[in-house]
Write a structure and sequence with these properties.
Elements (H helix, E strand, L loop, with lengths): L4 E6 L3 H13 L2 E6 L2 H7 L5 E7 L1 E2 L2 E2 H10 L6 E5 L4 H9 L4 E4 L1
Length: 105
């Protein structure tokens, strides 16, 4: 029996969420999507998560804020950050948070 690895994706763009969910499913991952940090905090159970894919700019909150919040709670998962608004200062912050990848949309 093959165990599918669970990836959580947080992004406020519904069409992007559908696309990344299809892509990851095609590569054997189970995907749960969340439209905001609040949605993630309300519904996510991280016990079986393999990885987080976080958009950096999520309206009034950010994936960076969420990553810090999880770290403060002692939750350590690999994080892939994504952004459409790339900058050196943002890349620096994500490196300091220990991200495993940084993707530009």
């Amino acid at each position: 029996m093959t165990v599918r690895k669970l990836v959580y994706v947080v992004d406020d763009d519904a069409s992007f969420l559908r696309a990344i969910q299809r892509l990851l499913n095609e590569h054997g991952y189970e995907v749960r999507v969340f439209h905001s940090v609040e949605d993630f905090n309300d519904r996510a159970t991280l016990d079986d998560a393999f990885c987080l894919v976080l958009d950096i700019h999520l309206g009034d909150r950010s994936g960076i804020d969420l990553s810090r919040q999880l770290s403060q709670r002692g939750i350590s998962l690999p994080v892939i950050f994504m952004t459409a608004n790339d900058s050196e200062s943002t890349r620096k912050v994500t490196r300091e948070l220990g991200c495993v990848a940084y993707l530009q949309k």
